[in-house]
Please model this.
Amino acid sequence: MKAQSKFLIGSGIIVATLLALAYIGYTQSKTYYHTISELATLPAPEQHQRMRVSGNVRGGSISHRDGRIDFVLEEQGKSLPVSYVGSDPLPDTFKDGAQALVEGRLQPDGDFTAEQVQAKCASKYEASPTGAPIQPSPTPGQSMNPAPGSSAGKS
Model:
């Protein structure tokens, strides 16, 4: 066999391998967003795909267990038990009543196993009742009142 044909066969194998890896990576990284209400109506093949689900964390439902954190998400009167098994620490804003977005897989028993959790505290992003801007709190260790004789607050 000529060196040129060996080179072409080798190049073809490398290109085919790279294309196969790209396709596998693409199909495994797809994540679908569903509401808690939609989960019960999903066809069987879609229930086993990676997905994102959002809702509010039910008050008093957060419990730390062996290597996981269990909690319940609620949305429109429906609830979803979630077990977080990821290695990243939970966000500081993850607490009772917070809006959370979980990413993972729905288990056959109806529980959701999450590898990622994102959360935001709804009250932190709402406008103040009077419509006036809310003044930010000082940085830790920083006083709200400038020291006498300092140039802080002077133009």
